[in-house]
Specification:
Chain B: It is an enzyme of class 3 (hydrolase). The complex is a heterodimer. Chain A is α/β, with parallel strands linked by helices. Chain A has helices at residues 13-30, 54-66, 87-96, 111-117, 136-150, 173-184, 241-248, 252-255, 278-281, 288-307; strands at 44-49, 70-75, 101-106, 124-130, 162-166, 188-192, 208-210, 222-225, 263-265. Chain A folds into two domains: 8-135 and 293-311, Aspartate/ornithine carbamoyltransferase (Rossmann fold, 3-Layer(aba) Sandwich); 136-291, Rossmann fold. In chain A, helix 1 crosses helix 5 (136-150) and helix 5 (136-150) packs across helix 6. In chain B, strands 1, 2, 3, 4, 5, 16, 17, 18 and 19 form a nine-stranded mixed beta sheet that branches. Chain B is globular and about 65 Å long. Chains A and B meet through helix 4 of A and helix 5 of B.
Chain lengths: 322, 440
Amino acid sequence: MITNLLSAGDLDRTDAIRILDTAEELLGVASRPIKKLPTLRGRTVVNLFFEDSTRTRISFEAAAKRLSADVINFSAKGSSVSKGESLKDTALTLQAMGADAVIIRHHSSGAPHRLAQARWTKGAVINAGDGTHEHPTQALLDAFTMRRHLVESTGTDLAGKNVTIVGDVLHSRVARSNALLLHTLGAHVTLVAPPTLLPVGVEHWPVETSYDLDASLEKADAVMMLRVQAERMNASYFPSAREYSRRYGLDTARLGRLPSHAIVMHPGPMNRGMEITADVADHVRSVIVEQVTNGVAVRMAVLYLLLGGASGEPEASEEGTS
Amino acid sequence: MSSYVIRGARLLGNDPVDIVFADGVITAVGPGAAAEVSGHDEIDGTGLVALPGLVDLHTHVREPGREDAETVLTGSRAAARGGFTCVHAMANTEPVADTAGVVEQVWRLGREGGYCDVQPVGAVTVGLQGSQLAELGAMADSAAGVRVFSDDGKCVSDAVLMRRALEYVKAFDGVVAQHAQEPRLTEGAQMNEGPLSGELGLVGWPAVAEEAIIARDVLLAEHVGSRLHVCHLSTRGSVEIVRWAKSRGIDVTAEVTPHHLLLSDDLVRGYDPIYKVNPPLRSNDDVEAVREGLADGTIDIVATDHAPHPMEDKECEWSAAAFGMIGLETALSVVQQTMVDTGRLTWEQVAAAMSTRPASIGRVTNQGRPLAVGEPANIVLVDPAASRTIDARDTASLSRNTPYAGLTLPGTVVATFLRGRPTVRDGELVTPLSKEGVSA
């Protein structure tokens, strides 16, 4: 098992399935009257959030607490970080406090890699979203949700399933992590976006791309709508919110073109009326709320496998930091 | 009285000769030239290559304003260790070198240091703001005698302003050195735009943003009959545009940095900002193209773009880090590895690209001269058979942001002479006996 979770590409098929299977077991905990396991008692998990994301932070917090870890929430707002303290000094401080795992959310792509590779902390580093790069636990919870609906058994991957991801791929960490993980799990991924919102070099990704949403719906087992920020139109990525909605939004007419078993997903927070209509968001085929529930189980599984007995003593080495 | 004899050094990499010089001037050169002299300080040149002192057209010394990163003195010392006898100090200091007062200060600090000549570059526009021409004539007429003008770090993106600058500097035989970067196409840019920028989620710096400006500028230079210098060219397309411009007879020169000759953008994969530089490290194909361009003369010179930064500006997340890398002490080694040891340039051609031509572009008359009788004794002795593993701490610069740490590079500078006086001997800095009393 890996020691950090920086990118969905870090996971091979075996590791990915192991996380999903573990999450399946842990999902049962949430339905018990007492939602707590003693696994990480005495371990310290830090939520290091340089960017506001209440949803992701409370999901990780709930996951760590259900495993009995001590949780420290470190928000950049109102802390020394806003007074100019560097990422390095913040990390050294957390290290001095004995963090066993650092869950980092940062506006700068690659910040979790710096934290892990510069060895400013000895704890496991978990990427909770970095800039426009990756969000690996989101991809894991998405894969977990798809597997529950489309495969319905543990120990398996998503071989042969067609997943259509629609929207601002260029700026989306969710799309990057999903493309990598779904490929590892054997799914066929189609990215749909206006040409301005597909990254240069996307032809090297293990995906298909399309500019035409309607043509990409009929074979989809799952369709994932990405959040599109209206301010993108001010940078001329598309002419107007209305035009974007018409060409790339998911409404009931388009929902009708999906196969009857297909599910509708969204990583949240949604712009209702922009990339997805309220009717579709609340439709019986939508699994958006379930994704949130599954997020806690998947994050429990990640913490359990990175910090649990299986990965050995993380405090064994005695390297100095200066 | 300072008189030296170098015995048996390979002049420009050719057959061994003796080089005799006294009071700053070369008095004899040739096989056995040392036979008839005595009482000189002896230097064994066996196995060493003798080149004219190197001239850098693109150095950031950070003084005035950022003396925590580099000073004129420490930058000069790093230059001497790299075999340079003259560096051009870029204008993006605080305050900007956009007045006669600032350029004269930098020039004077270089002379006081005594390790190499520091030739200030003047800003093209006031405060590098790109809106109003700086007093180019006043800087040209100052004691510093500025001939190279650049807003380096920023592009003179306004086409009319660029045209006027190109025209105006003709009055004193100046040259505009353009940092070619279309600003709108590079807003927030972090690395070369290509497959890796998409994968890493970093905002791309597309080649077209460099090439579009170079294409515009060579056409402007042709239209107004001015000479143009292109700073740190980095892409295959840029090489092709400059090649085309030269074939049309346009008076354009171009430089490439050592790091663009050796390093490519896959180094960004680990997000270590030591590899963050502007223009960014490009693709392997671009690296090959700039080597080809330097070999066939499309690219005239190698210039370091030595850009010191304090540690804290590199020990951070990628997007917060400063652009730039130091390079004075490693430039010749990188050129040897990429161009000489690969058979693409002779040492004679290296002397042209790193001494003669940069001096000529900058109109520095007493540098980049041939090693011949009557010429100033600006000489560097290189041991091409030696190699060293780069240690970031082993530098005369105040900063340590070298991208080559841990790499083994060929060639060491054994000695550097500035007008007949050693600034480096046996690979070590020699304190100048200057009247200002510079302490070591």
